[in-house]
Design goal:
Number of strands: 6
Strand content: under 5%
Strand order of the largest sheet: 1-3
Oligomer: single chain
CATH architecture of one domain: Alpha Horseshoe
Distance between the termini: 28 Å
Length: 539
């Protein structure tokens, strides 16, 4: 798939390679295999469905590099969740990176332009997924075989709605394309994109399989409810109209389904939180919390994005890569003191450099030995800023992942997990949504904090629960999971001077930036190619 030169039109060659065990197919020669073969029957269509999931986890047709889906950007960098991390975490208080790749330092400094490789790469990655899903939906609908095919189409429609949710959040007004076409598309308003995502999710909720009925790695109807919860929580930002009552309604539906917060301390270290981010999180109990996850396997679904990036890039300084199940670190990712200081239950014992070495809150997964809390220099100075040890390529017993070379990681990456829906519910209640209950909201927050503390020592009362607490709790629970920019925008802290973090706006102590930074630019070459499009303000 060459670099897409006009938005949202690709006729995909469906090479059936998947990171989902139950959807795996043998790679097929694209020169001898056509859409007629792919959609010959329901079984073949299931294989095509695999590509829709895989295109969010992988980057090309033959593994970590070579035959990329998108050219013009480093293939590993172009992977969806790695780009999401770059745009939604590196532009916030959660993360900095020491590398000088063109466009990368601009993200934390919040001074990117319309030609930025990372914003452009994300736009094309999402455009590709829309194109893949449109093609699948058109072709699979012609089979008219059975309810199973109908469910496949519903899954494809979910993935398309999820992709448009990302476009809505990151870019705002984009073309809305639901059929394969060679025409240059018109631009839809942000409100129109919102309405499309909403209507699609409402339409497919009963077409998707029941809660837990699909094999691990495929979405069911709870995913639609959970995404509606996210959509409605952000509706005031997206459309100017609050929908907190609806956020409560669909949070309740997701919470009361078959998913559950992981409390299984499989490695016996007194915490069940870290199990969510280990190499066996598809089987150690964490999978019961994952409503939608990207699945990775160190042998069968190799990429330099995904959790391979999150594990390797976060290792440097005096850290021992062996303890993380990989063969070395890339000395890139760290965090700022703004995140560290949100874990205000730190105990008094420190290391030789005066850094805390233990937190009562087990979610504070930081490496401090030889690391400075203060960041004086981002570029090429791994020891400035605490390192983050959240993601590992070892299982609950400490055994490494399946890739004997230690290059590629097994750890699955939750995109939506039940803990987030607990937090959505609580925030929607505090923002005045109807049908919720403050005591119930407090109970959900305390369930997360009981897991984090290993006891009720960190629990709060309903009087302690306010919006400031929720924003900080979202940071403590969800950091490095691709959520932070969206949260800060919703709380009006992303661009303003009301909340500053190190090097926000390119200033060591942090400074406000222009409000137009709440949206990323449409790629400059897309604007040149398609006269129907108007660039976002400020670019």
């Amino acid at each position: 798939m060459n670099y897409i030169k006009k938005l949202l039109f690709v006729i995909p060659t469906l090479i059936l390679v998947s990171c989902h065990d139950d959807l795996d197919q043998t790679p097929i020669d694209p020169d001898s295999f056509t859409e007629t073969n792919v959609f010959a029957n329901a079984d073949e269509a299931k294989g095509a469905l695999a590509k829709l999931y895989a295109s969010l986890a992988l980057t090309g047709q033959q593994g970590p590099s070579g035959q990329p889906d998108i050219t013009g950007i480093d293939e590993g960098t172009s992977q969806y969740s790695r780009l999401l991390f770059s745009l939604n975490e590196l532009t916030t208080d959660h993360a900095v990176i020491g590398w000088g790749d063109p466009g990368l330092p601009n993200l934390h400094a919040m001074n990117w332009g319309a030609g930025n490789d990372f914003t452009t790469g994300m736009y094309y990655r999402l455009a590709q997924e829309v194109s893949f899903t449109n093609s699948f939906i058109e072709n699979a609908a012609l089979l008219n075989e059975n309810a199973e095919v109908e469910a496949y189409v519903a899954e494809a429609r979910f993935l398309r709605a999820f992709t448009y949710y990302n476009l809505l959040d990151l870019f705002g007004a984009v073309p809305l394309v639901t059929v394969v076409s060679t025409e240059l598309p018109e631009q839809s308003t942000r409100a129109e994109i919102f309405s499309f995502v909403e209507s699609e999710l409402l339409a497919i909720q009963d077409l998707l399989k029941e809660s837990g009925a699909n094999e691990y790695g495929r979405v069911d109807r709870v995913a639609a409810w959970a995404l509606l919860s996210k959509l409605y929580l952000n509706a005031e930002v997206f459309t100017g109209e609050d929908r907190y009552t609806d956020a409560i309604t669909f949070s309740n539906l997701a919470i009361n389904a078959s998913y559950s917060i992981n409390t299984n301390d499989a490695n016996g270290n007194g915490s069940a939180y870290d199990e969510l981010f280990l190499a066996d999180n598809n089987s150690n109990g964490a999978q019961n919390e994952f409503i939608f996850a990207l699945n990775f396997d160190g042998n069968n679904s190799r990429t330099y994005g995904g959790t391979t990036f999150l594990v390797h890039a976060a290792i440097g300084g005096s850290m021992d890569a062996f303890n993380f199940g990989v063969n070395g670190g890339w000395s890139g990712l760290r965090t700022t003191k703004a995140l560290v200081n949100k874990f205000d239950y730190a105990v008094s014992n420190t290391d030789a450099d005066g850094n805390p070495i233990e937190w009562e809150d087990s979610r504070a997964l930081f490496y401090t030995d030889g690391q400075n809390l203060e960041i004086n220099t981002i570029a090429n100075t791994f020891t400035d800023g605490y390192a983050v040890t959240k993601f590992k390529n070892v299982d609950a017993t400490g055994a490494p992942g399946v890739d004997e070379g230690g290059d590629f990681v097994d750890t699955d990456l939750p995109v939506i997990r039940l803990a987030e829906i607990y937090l959505n519910y609580a925030e929607a209640v505090l923002r005045g949504g109807s049908g919720g209950d403050l005591n119930t909201a407090t109970g959900y927050i305390n369930a997360l904090r009981t897991r984090a503390f290993g006891s009720t020592a960190g629990n709060i009362s309903s009087g302690d629960l306010d919006l400031d607490f929720i924003l900080d709790e979202r940071a403590r629970e969800l950091y490095w999971e691709g959520q932070r920019r969206t949260d800060l925008i919703r709380f009006n802290d992303y661009t303003t001077g009301s909340y500053l973090w190190p090097f926000k706006g390119g200033s060591k102590s942090g400074t406000a930036v222009d409000d137009f930074r709440k949206l990323f630019p449409l790629p400059s070459n897309i604007i040149l190619i398609n006269p129907n499009l108007t660039q976002n303000t400020g670019y």
